[in-house]
Design brief:
InterPro entries: Calcineurin-like_PHP_lpxH, Metallo-depent_PP-like. This protein is an alpha/beta fold. The chain has a single domain, classed as Metallo-dependent phosphatases (Purple Acid Phosphatase, chain A, domain 2), CATH 3.60.21.10. The protein contains three helices and seven strands; from the N terminus they run ααββαβββββ. Strands 1-2-3-5-4 form a five-stranded mixed β-sheet, with no helix packed on it. The protein has a two-stranded antiparallel ribbon with strand order 6-7. The longest helix is centred in the N-terminal third of the chain and has 10 residues.
Length: 127
């Protein structure tokens, strides 16, 4: 939620793909888009903070991102891994800092190569 944190992450990353969230103020919004898009390992990726209610999420996201293979989102802090009709994979890594109603703080790792999404793992962090 701070420009300093964004800059610290950016300085450590070869490439940082990030979007602003609902708690981010004008300094971050000046540097980050609402939606980020990239092609990584042949996978067409979109990142967005908010996707709306869980009910109907796959259908809504498939309609909003018809030309993508993978959508990474956040906001709820609740891990999510589903595939929409048509093949769009939806991933929410949860949160490594604010677990909300979840039993564990989490993050996700995955491999994108040759147009495929592989090795999706949800990792739990010790308290």
């Amino acid at each position: 939620m701070s420009l300093e944190s964004y800059e610290a992450l950016s300085s450590r990353a070869r490439r940082l793909i990030a979007v602003y969230g609902n708690n981010d103020g004008p300094p971050l919004r000046a540097h980050l888009p609402e939606v980020a898009e990239a092609v990584l390992g042949g996978v067409r990726l979109a990142v967005v903070h908010e996707t709306g209610p869980a009910t109907g999420r796959e259908r809504r996201c498939a309609a909003r991102f018809p030309d993508h293979d993978l959508l990474v989102f956040g906001h709820s802090h609740i891990p999510w891994d589903t595939t929409a009709p048509g093949g769009l994979r939806l991933l929410n890594p949860g949160s490594p800092t604010d677990r909300r109603r979840q039993p564990h703080a989490t993050y996700m790792t995955l491999t994108l190569a040759n147009g495929l999404i592989n090795d999706v793992l949800l990792h739990r962090l010790a308290r």
